[in-house]
C-alpha cells in the first residue's frame, strides 16, 4: 500500500475531515479521494460509509487504522534510523500555554532522550490554533487537548476539568469568572453550565495566557475552569458541588501528517508510552 495514501487516510481518521486531511497533506480533496479509492482497490474492501451528510469508517476501515499506524511507524523509524546523523532544521513543537508548566517539560525531556542533538522551537497557543498550524505545516508536533476516546494523536494522559480560585472566599452575588479563550472546552462548559443553572455570573476576563489567568486568580479577582494539569502552586481546587460540572479531556501528542525528518509517528508512540509510564 502507498505510504502517502496511508498518511492521508490517517489524517482523515485523526481530524474527521477530508478538508483538513487535504490541507495537512498539501493535496486537493480530489487527490485525497483518488488515494482513498486506491486504498480500497489495494485492500479489496470498502473503507468508508455515508452516515447522513458525514463520512465514517466501515468495520474494515477501522481495522485498517491500526495496520496503517504500524506501517507508518515502521517506515518513519527506518527513515529516522538512516538519517539520524543528518543535521535537520529546528523541530517546531506546539503547546497550549496552560500545559507549559506541567506537561511540556516532561515531553521535552523525553524528546531529548531520543534526539539529544535536535534543536526545538516551541510555540505556545491554544489547541484550536495549533491544529491549524499542523494543517499548514507550521508546527511539526503539538500537545493538544481532545475529547475522550477521539482518535487524534497519541495519548499522554487523561485529565478532568476543575474549578480553581486563589484561596480567597468569593462572596459576590454574581460569580466572577476568569476563563481561557472562548474556543477552550472549559470556557464553553463554564458559561453553558452557569446559564443552565440560571446562576448569576460576570465574565471578568478571558485570555489565552495561563500566566495572566493565574495571576488574577491569586489576586482573588475570580474563579476559573481548567484541567487538573494546569493547576499551579498558589491555586486552590474548589470542591463546591453547586458549581456546574466540567468535562473530562485527553491530553495527546499529535504529529503533522508530513512529519519532521527526525520525528515521526514511531517516536510519538514511544514518548506516549514513556509519559504514561512515569505519570
Automatic annotation (TrEMBL):
Residues 1-58 form the HTH lysR-type domain. Pfam families: HTH_1 (PF00126), LysR_substrate (PF03466). Keywords: DNA-binding, Transcription, Transcription regulation. PROSITE patterns: HTH_LYSR. InterPro entries: LTTR, LysR_HTH_N, LysR_subst-bd, WH-like_DNA-bd_sf, WH_DNA-bd_sf. One of its GO terms (molecular function) is DNA-binding transcription factor activity. Belongs to the LysR transcriptional regulatory family. This is Hca operon transcriptional activator. It comes from Marinomonas gallaica. The lineage of its organism: Bacteria, Pseudomonadati, Pseudomonadota, Gammaproteobacteria, Oceanospirillales.
